[in-house]
């Protein structure tokens, strides 16, 4: 059973841009860790902490350990190898058959006529730099799939409504107005059999035009890398940070009167690699509560606290608002609480907030 006050045997936080590994150890295993420069890894209590891709340990002595709050802190310098960014290969998966992740209900009624890649999340904001003769009419109307199309993104797919089997899904009656480059009216899309939330539908007047389906809520006949809710939320925050000035967000549950008011979240960095002796136990708990286990330990470090209806002051006065479904908000809150347990007690609080991280692939 996990204990919120139990300090982990070790906790490692690798910062690729700064070029260090910050390792926190219990005094009882001070002599049980070694740094192997040739094999590019740190060994702690019979466990290996592998380096991020394209990094190596610098060929110099590790700084002497420092005792702090009954925890030994070690700083290990690394040397990142910089490479020119190469474009990602566009995923053209065989998504002709789409099923609900929870109950396996078939969601697609026919084959797609075309499978195309989605543009980046901030495509609408950079159209001014791409077009020299004013804004094109199609740019103003926005990007959307034509009948029979499937547009594949990193964490979601856009499907024309004529492909969806309407007898296996139902649309929430509550409608919202979203501003994703262009204003659009949306509503939640659920599986008819198990009530699993699949994504959103977009209206054209009074008719449903197309659907935004999250990859972590479906499965296909192709062999793809599994997608997870935790990774989806992380990419939503990363995309939002490119469109907003602030890295502080108020995450509110969408269209609900629940007692849960939301989460205040401050992004501190998205280039970390987290290793902890409690990671296996955290994954076990996530699987027991029905959550998805993200095997990749790439993480985004955040400060978080529960949101209240009080007037926003101080550092939260200029925070931007993100709306997510209630079940995603609750899952995110639980995931953040579990991630805080893997940190040593001396590193769990900062700026009157708790410290946690969100893993993503």
What do you see in this structure?
The longest helix is centred in the C-terminal third of the chain and has 16 residues, at 326-341. The strands form 4 sheets. Strands 1, 2, 6, 7, 8, 18, 19, 20, 21, 22 and 23 form an 11-stranded mixed sheet that branches. Strands 10-11-12-16-15-14-13 form a 7-stranded mixed sheet, with no helix packed on it. The radius of gyration is 23 Å and the shape is elongated. It starts with 9 loop residues before the first strand and ends with a strand. The chain has 361 residues and is mainly beta. It has 5 helices and 23 strands.
What would the keywords be for this entry?
14% helix; mainly beta; 39% strand; 361 residues; elongated; 7-stranded mixed sheet; 23 strands
Helix-strand category: mainly beta
Count the beta strands: 23
Summarize the biggest pleated sheet: 11 strands, mixed
Fraction of residues in helix: 10-25%
Question: Can you count the helices?
Answer: 5
Distance between the termini: 27 Å
Strand/helix succession: EEEEEEEEEEHHEEEEEEEHEEHEEHEE
- Overall average pLDDT: 76
Write the layout of secondary structure elements.
Elements (H helix, E strand, L loop, with lengths): L9 E6 L4 E6 L7 E4 L4 E4 L2 E4 L4 E3 L8 E3 L2 E10 L17 E3 L13 E4 L9 H4 L6 H5 L7 E4 L3 E5 L8 E12 L1 E10 L5 E8 L2 E8 L3 E3 L8 H15 L4 E6 L9 E14 L2 H10 L9 E9 L13 E5 L1 H16 L7 E2 L2 E7 L2
Parallel strand pairs: 10-11, 18-21
Antiparallel strand pairs: 1-2, 1-19, 2-8, 3-4, 4-5, 6-8, 7-8, 9-17, 11-12, 12-16, 13-14, 14-15, 15-16, 18-19, 19-20, 20-23, 22-23
